[in-house]
Specification:
Layout lengths: L2 E6 L2 E4 L3 E3 L10 E3 L2 E12 L3 E12 L11 E10 L4 E13 L2 E16 L29 E18 L3 E15 L3 H4 L15 H7 L10 E14 L10 E10 L11 E15 L3 E15 L40 E18 L2 E18 L5 H11 L17 E12 L3 E10 L7 E7 L4
Antiparallel strand pairs: 1-5, 2-5, 3-4, 5-6, 6-7, 7-8, 8-9, 9-10, 10-11, 11-12, 12-13, 13-14, 14-15, 15-16, 16-17, 17-18, 18-19, 19-20
GO cellular component, one term: outer membrane
InterPro entries: Bac_surfAg_D15
Pfam families: Omp85 (PF01103)
């Protein structure tokens, strides 16, 4: 499937009165923001299977009398975007440390439709990716959506954080509701208006094959409803949340789907451990930042469609999924590295090379070099001999080497660079380009969104 970036532009305005800050250094003086400000980012892309994407995002910030700037008192984020053939994002996100005194509140309400959600099987290197099967110019072409399935997700979550000890250690609790609707790609919708070789062929996708082979069973193949209860601790010494230059942010979160609050036979518990550190190399200019994380299944069975889901207390993007893609392993295909338990790391050198004030708006530009690594450490149990026997009985031309490798799972790595454009410190436009080091993980990825990765 091909994707062409058409154009991206920024409109940043403010609706609040500003007062001038008296500088104590020789740098350009920032403007202290008060009241409400907002940033808006319309974007258009084109996808040969999904059509044009249109819509945009708006992020409103409230700074009160300016005494907390650059820390906002309230943030409201809204995103509505559509592809012309049905996929879309509808999201409303709220964040504040001031709504309830002494408690941070984050809440998300989203409805996400994805007519071509990525699916490559499980256990990373143990599964085979064949790029010629999705290249409609290759003699071995099968379908551009062979590694896809249809997914609709309705999600609501609310998380609370409060002081546990001093000003650095916090308790965290939360609840999240997920409702998944899963199925094969709707070829009739995606083929609407196409003719001849442009049409997607009516052939089984990898998802369909996994269902027929019993790797995805009848109780999970269509999705389901799940309630997560979260509890944990957070350690936070960052100097500024949107782009720290020093400090640590670490969290340990237990995520549980209790019996009777979700799909029968799929109550389970995950443990998420994340450690982030920010080290100043040149004060206020260059920072080395890294994130080390793992998520482990400690009890129960996870349905296949929830395996990519990563526990988080703060949703920086529309989804929190991996490994692979814009949020974890940049340059590797989305959700390429999936298992019952994973571990990953991100390493970035961030250089804030320009800081200025433009028409009373604080602006800085930042370049970053990065490398990402990740691996499945708790694999999904797959009996390849049983699968091969069943698949061969259903299709005599079946070859196990088309779907599975003889390799054990090993570290997946990427490298790349990115650019950030920040307005009033908190509205940050992000562009990253990453390359995979293994052809079995894809080739590269370009990601345009908001915020630093972590």
């Amino acid at each position: 499937m091909r994707k062409y970036f058409v154009f991206l532009f920024l409109i940043a305005t403010t609706s609040a009165q500003a007062k001038q800050y008296k500088p104590t250094t020789d740098s350009l003086p920032p403007t202290i923001k008060t009241g409400w400000t907002f940033g808006a980012l319309p974007a258009i892309t084109f996808d040969s299977d999904l059509g044009f994407q249109y819509g945009g995002i708006v992020n409103l910030y409230y700074y009160g009398d300016g005494s907390t700037y650059p820390t906002y008192q309230h943030s409201i984020y809204a995103e509505v975007s559509r592809f012309t053939k049905g996929s879309g994002i509808n999201r409303l996100f709220y964040d504040s440390k001031y709504l309830i005194p002494g408690i941070r509140v984050t809440s998300d309400a989203s409805y996400l439709t994805d007519q071509a959600s990525d699916f490559y099987g499980w256990n990373g290197q143990e599964t085979k990716y064949k790029p010629n099967w999705v290249d409609d110019g290759d003699p071995q072409y099968v379908s551009r959506v062979f590694y896809k399935y249809d997914r609709k997700l309705a999600r609501f979550s609310t998380d609370l954080q409060g002081k546990l000890y001093g000003d650095k250690l916090y308790w965290a609790v939360g609840i999240a509701l997920y409702n998944f609707e899963i199925g094969s790609v709707d070829l009739s919708k995606l083929n609407r208006g196409k003719s001849g070789s442009d049409k997607l062929p009516d052939v089984p996708e990898l998802y369909d094959k996994y269902v027929s082979w019993g790797l995805i069973n009848s109780t999970e193949k269509s999705g389901g409803f799940h309630t997560y209860i979260k509890a944990g601790v957070v350690f936070d010494t960052r100097d500024f949340e949107a782009n720290p230059s020093t400090g640590i942010w670490a969290e340990a979160i237990m995520n549980v789907t209790p019996p009777l609050l979700g799909e029968k036979n799929y109550d389970h518990a995950n443990l998420s451990l994340v450690y982030r550190q920010y080290l100043p190399v040149v004060k206020s200019k260059i920072t080395f930042a890294y994130r080390l994380a793992t998520q482990l299944n400690v009890a129960g069975k996870i349905p296949f469609y929830l395996r990519p889901n990563l526990t988080t207390l703060y949703l920086r993007r529309a989804t929190s999924e991996g490994l692979g893609g814009s949020q974890t392993l940049r340059g590797i295909m989305r959700s390429r590295v999936v298992g019952n338990g994973i571990a990953y790391g991100n390493f970035e050198l961030r250089w804030k090379f320009l800081q200025t004030v433009v028409r009373h708006q604080n602006l800085y530009l930042s370049l970053n070099l990065f490398s990402d690594i990740g691996q499945v450490i708790q694999p999904v149990r797959v009996n390849q001999n049983e699968v091969t026997s069943l698949a061969a009985a259903l299709n005599p031309t079946f070859k196990a080497s088309d779907y599975f490798t003889s390799s054990d799972e090993k570290l997946h790595t990427t490298y790349g660079a990115g650019l950030r454009i920040a307005i009033n410190e908190n509205f940050i436009i992000a562009a990253d380009y990453g390359r995979a080091t293994s052809r079995n993980d894809g080739t590269s990825g370009l990601y345009i969104a908001l915020n630093f990765l972590f």
